[in-house]
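User: Structure please.
Assistant: Input sequence and predicted structure:
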Amino acid sequence: MRNYIRYAILIAISNILPFCCQAQHNEIDISSGIGSGIGLFNISDWLMKNDFQPSNPAFTYSISYNHYLKHHISIGFALCYFADQGTNKYQNSLFNRSDSILGSYKRQTFIIAPEASFPYYIEHGFKLYARVNIGMRFSYEEFNYYSSVHYQSGDHQLFLPVAQITPIALRLGTHVGGFIEFSWGYKGMINLGLFCKL
């Protein structure tokens, strides 16, 4: 049985490797985005009645690897990081936010997420496309509460699912170029970056 598994793995590698070695099909992206959906709204924070208000805009820094398949569809993964800090208010419901500040927070977040892109339109040196990412977020959060009425002070380590939905994105360049993505999620509402084909 073990031999069959080894043969299956070797066959899979031998089929995948030639595609990965074709330089024109691989790409690395480096980007920075602002307006992360994690900072604006997060389902777990809402369920715990937390309303985090960053004191300054938090930038998300990302590096992605993508492999292009037929019809210019790509699959890959992204590694992201962002850090923010600010105040935490008590939130009665999604539409009823109080002015009662519970305390302050600091947060660092790391994200790993598979991603896929789908082109709308391609011309030489120009591409209009969409992208979807679904992955996991690890956050280390430090809290200093002014009152223990609702919660206690402490540190949290959270593992939560995250997503990035990009309905519209523009890319300029052939082997090296830049891109802008308009989206919702952990990379930010506006994500600017550079790409390089390997």
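Confidence is low (pLDDT under 50) at residues 19-23.
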